[in-house]
Sequence to fold (102 residues):
Amino acid sequence: MKLLLSTPSLVHAAHCRNLLQAAGIRADLRNTWLAGAMGDIPLRESAPQVWLIDDEMEAQAWAVLRAADNPVAGPGWQCASCAERHEAQFDSCWQCGAPRQP
Ligand SMILES: [Zn+2]
Fold:
């Protein structure tokens, strides 16, 4: 387990988790129950958090989140090498590293 990000917005945290799960990256939400009950707990420790189940997925997770911040219109594509599906903004396969075929 690895802490990926912490945000004051539970909606944002849930959105990030959903993006990761849609990309096949397992993630968990923490501190979701504290909204409205933060009291004396420092915000940094009580803010909703997104945790990665698999530590080694961090680079991919950030790639997914960055891509979601900068959506590019266009059809998705499927890797010719391993059949992994990708959104339009990716130029190579994150599963096997093969470049996108025209
Ligand atoms: Zn591939």
The CA atoms of residues 19 and 65 lie 7 Å apart. The chain has a mean pLDDT of 85.
